[in-house]
Amino acid sequence: MAPAGGVPEPYRNDPVRGFDNAAELARWNWQRKMTVALVERYGSWASGWLAEIAGHTADGALVLRWAGARDSITTPEETLGAVAGALLDWRMFLEDLAEIFTRYLPLPADPRVAAVAWEATVASLVATVAARSGADEHWYPVCTLALKWFLAVAEVPGEDHDAIIDEAIGGRFWSSVSPLGAEVADAAESVAARLTGITSPPDDTWPDTWPQDWPKWRSTELPAAARAPRIQPPPVPDALAIWRQVRQMARWERAAEHASGPARTARDGVAEHLARRKYGAERVLAALDLVRVDAAEGGALTFARLEAWQQRVLAVATAPFRTTSAWARAGLERYPYCDELPKAFEACLAEATDPAIPLPSRAARVYLDVLHFHPFADGNARSAALALYFVLAREAVVLDRAAPLLMTRWPASDPRAAEGLARFVALLIKQTRG
Questions:
Q1: Where does the UniProt annotation place the signal sequence (predicted)?
Q2: Which class is domain 239-433?
Q3: Residue pair 386/366 in contact by the 8 Å Cβ criterion
Q4: Could you report the per-residue pLDDT of 157-206, keeping only the tens digit for each?
């Protein structure tokens, strides 16, 4: 195909020359041209090769072949192999969905039997998508698409699709965290009740495993409704362990000079950036008001404070520390869970107000702490921004420009990058003051 002969150069971090915007644009343009070529050659279904669906290797493991132009373009041979692999993985995923459709259709006419069939179908679809995508942030659009396809094939009126799916999965699952069996079951019951009018009995309880240990009546009433096995995402490096090593190695005392407030203008850069969010802007700005109050009161940064802000961000009654492993960047980064993690995170937060460390270093470090400890089931980037805001505002510093900081990805694997973030915060403070 035409794009195959011109694979662009891979992304490389060059601390001297800085970020190469032209090269980055060339990589994404090439990816778009490849999509056009695949669709022209194989049909519109091929556009889904970018959906970041994992596929099986020869030994049965799951691997994600394509995770975007920046991360997946390497040598020409490897890059084209990754494109071909991603296309095949997407095709096999479509065939898996087709098999599920065939297994459950036509749906029974009796409402009670149909309710069970709808539950089984939706649960299988959601679990299949979550497993094949590593439950990363990209799984929501694919899950929505799969459910819409089934509703269409089952001849549910199209004008109802968005409402049904939003009620089933909208806000029910957390991005980057594998869904629990109980959550999958709740979504399935929601769809079944909406379409058949049959609701589960009030004493119906579900285990937190999927698909094992389901109540027997659910697994025997429809013998043909075999549950899709839960497939674990492929093993990836422990990004949290890497960050904790980098945190110890970084020279925080010397990364930036001491700075103090007051330093602010009529603009609030963090608030302006958060206000531009497409969803949940009002909630995160309400949480920012709480941060301002806490910063004025002083005191240490604690998880209790972080949780109170996150409750407002997510509109939930509680926002406890996660109890499962989490993933990011299409499954390329993994943040395992262990029992000592909440205590270790609390200790890191306490260091955010240590006056021995320059303010820019403390703000940068706590920002990275929240990102890489990944304490919450959702909204960790927003929580990191709020933590950084608190540390700075506590010492009367409010950045008038924050988008360059909050929109840039800061990797966990390089002490120099961590120190560079501290210097960047110092620069933003200087610009605000000056």
A1: none
A2: mainly alpha
A3: no
A4: 877 787 887 777 766 665 555 566 666 777 788 788 888 877 765 544 44
What is the rounded distance in angstroms from the CA atom of residue 203 to the CA atom of residue 107? 26
Which residue type sits at 78?
E
Query: Which helix (DSSP H) or strand (DSSP E) does residue 328 occupy?
Result: strand 326-328
The C-alpha atoms of residue 322 and residue 342 are separated, in whole angstroms, by 9
Q: Which residues fall within 8 angstroms of residue 376, CB to CB, at 6 or more apart?
A: 310, 314, 319, 321, 322, 383
d(CA 254, CA 418): 12
Alpha-carbon distance of 27 to 71, in angstroms, equals: 10
Q: Which amino acid is present at 395? A: E
For the chain, what are the domain ranges? 2-220, 239-433
Q: What is the pLDDT of residues 75-134, one digit of tens each?
A: 999 999 999 999 999 998 899 888 888 888 888 888 888 888 888 888 888 877 777 765
Q: Which amino acid is at 267?
A: R
Measured from the Cβ of residue 40, the count of other Cβ atoms closer than 10 Å reads: 12
Query: What distance in Å separates the CA atoms of residue 396 and residue 433, rounded to the nearest whole number?
Result: 11
How far apart CA 103 and CA 99 sit, in angstroms, is: 6
177: three-class secondary structure by DSSP: strand
- Bridge partners (DSSP) of residue 393 are none
The per-residue DSSP string of 24-59 comes to HHHHHHHHHHHHHHHHHHH-GGGGGGGS---EE-TT
